Amino acid sequence: MSPLEARYRRLLACYPRDHRARHEEEMISVLLAGARQGQIRPDPADVADLLRGALRVHGRRAFGPVSAPAWRDGLALAVALWPSLMLIGALALRLLQAAETLNNGHGTAWERLTWTLLPTEPVVVAALPVLALLLRRRWIAVLGAVVFVLYHIGHPRLLNLDTLLFPNHGPVLLAQVAAVVIAFVPAAHRAIMLIPWRAFLLWGPLALAGLTASKAIVRWVDVPVDLDIVRWKPLPWLVVVALAAGYACRSAVGRRAALLLFVPAAALGDLGDLPFVPTSTALAQLGCAALAFAVAAALAWRRNGPVASATDR
């Protein structure tokens, strides 16, 4: 293989694998036939043309009509994962409250331990949609919706439409709706089947640890004194979300679900202050997230390879 052909083949690696399998030899023949005598490097015009072609092919597959099934399944998967994120948020807050209760010294040790172990109403409300999805039980989805309504009737201020924009209300309502929809709509119900149990067992505790760490920085650090530390509060959760997104990129459906869910999921870690922190700090946090994403994606592909499906476009 000549140096010129080797360089052209490296450029063709930008194209999808199946596209190369069908057209690579033909494209190489055309490129070599048009090369000058003694040429050892690709012509800049050919390089630009090949890169434009690769972008067009990837763009058609990512956003063209052929990608519609993958986008539909990706949206269904993102919706199916939302109740789990709400449960993780409720559990993280509960863990922090429990830690504070154990340390505040009020009541006997047994009373503090009992109160700590009892689940709170928000945890129960958030847990029922997740159980409905994991166990594939419609009656649990309906029960979750009823409990959600009763909980809000018991807290009339939550019935104000303005509170639907608050992180603890609107997103939880969306989780209840998602559970009911997935329970009764077959196309949406199949989305949760795409996630193996071992993925929940791996990412559930990791997500809980990351979100709890992010929230603990705000609750347990003296903000005026340790402002530099508080500015890094989104990082633990942001890294976990980036790792999960990288892991999901093994399949076309996973890539689309990660794209749709990344910003809403990352926002649970309180990203509201990110635009106001020093530019160097914000870039460093985003760089850590990008590095986590790249590492997770590389490890997932190296270990298991891409996951093919009927909608893998």
From TrEMBL:
The keyword Transmembrane helix applies. The chain crosses the membrane at residues 75-93, 113-134, 139-158, 170-188, 200-220, 232-250, 257-276, 282-301. This is Uncharacterized protein. Keywords: Membrane, Transmembrane, Transmembrane helix.
